[in-house]
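Example 4.3 (complexes with small molecules)
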Amino acid sequence: MSKPDQHQLRQYLRLYLVMGSVNCTQPPEEVLTSAITGGITLFQFREKGVGALTGQAYYQLAESLQQICREHKIPFIVNDDIELAIALDADGIHVGQEDIPADQIRARLGQNKMIGVSAHSVAEARQAIQDGADYLGIGPIYPTTSKADAEAVQGTRTITALKNHQIHIPLVGIGGIHADNAEPILTAGADGIAVISAIAGQNNVEQATERLNTLTKHFIANQKQ
Ligand SMILES: Cc1ncc(COP(=O)(O)OP(=O)(O)O)c(N)n1
Ligand SMILES: Cc1ncsc1CCOP(=O)(O)O
Ligand SMILES: [Mg+2]
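Answer. The structure with LCLJCK34 bound is encoded below.
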C-alpha cells in the first residue's frame, strides 16, 4: 500500500484499533477480523505488557494480523519496533517520546511510510512535525488501564491547544475512549479516536466496533454540512 495523502490519512485515522494478544479475550485474528467487519479504518500492532509474545511467536502474530489487514485494505502500523516494521514492509510505525525519534525512523523507512508520534504538548507536537511525523497520537485523554506507564490524563486540552496554535497535522485522541465519551475528542478537532479496550476487550467485538463506527462517521458527516 502506498502512503496516503493527508486527506486520506485523516479518513484512516477515524477509527484506529491498537492491539496485541494481551488485550484480547478471544484469538487476536478473530478480534481483528470482527473489528474490521465492524468498521475500523486503521490498525496498529502493539504487542506489549505482561504476557506479551516474544521471538518467533511475536513475529508470526504480526505477520498473520498484517495478512488480515492486507486482505481488507486496512493499513498495518507497527508500534515501536522499527526492525519489525522493516522486516514486514509495514505501512507505518507509531513511536512515542521514549522511542526512536521520528527523524531517525524517517531516515530508515523513507518517505513512503506513515510515521505516527505520541505528543502531550504543543512543544512535543512541533518537534514531531519538524522530525517528519505524518500524524500525532494525543493522550491519555481519559484514565486508561491498558498502558501502565501512561502520562497524566489530559482531557482534550492538548488537542484544543494545537488548534489554537494553528497546528493542523492529522491527529487522534487515545486513552480510555469508548462510545459514551468519544464525542468531545472529535469536537475538539481530532480526526478520529484510537482505542484498545473499547474494541479488543469487548465480548462482542463487532457490535462494539459498529457503535464506534456509526458514531465517528456521523460526527464527521455532520461536521462537513
Ligand atoms: C495512536 C497512538 N497514540 C499513542 C500511542 C502511545 O505511544 P507511546 O507513547 O510510545 O506508548 P506505547 O504505545 O509504546 O506504550 C500509541 N501507541 N498509538
Ligand atoms: C497506548 C496508549 N497510549 C496512551 S493511552 C494508551 C492506551 C489506550 O488503551 P485504552 O483504549 O484501552 O484506554
Ligand atoms: Mg512507544
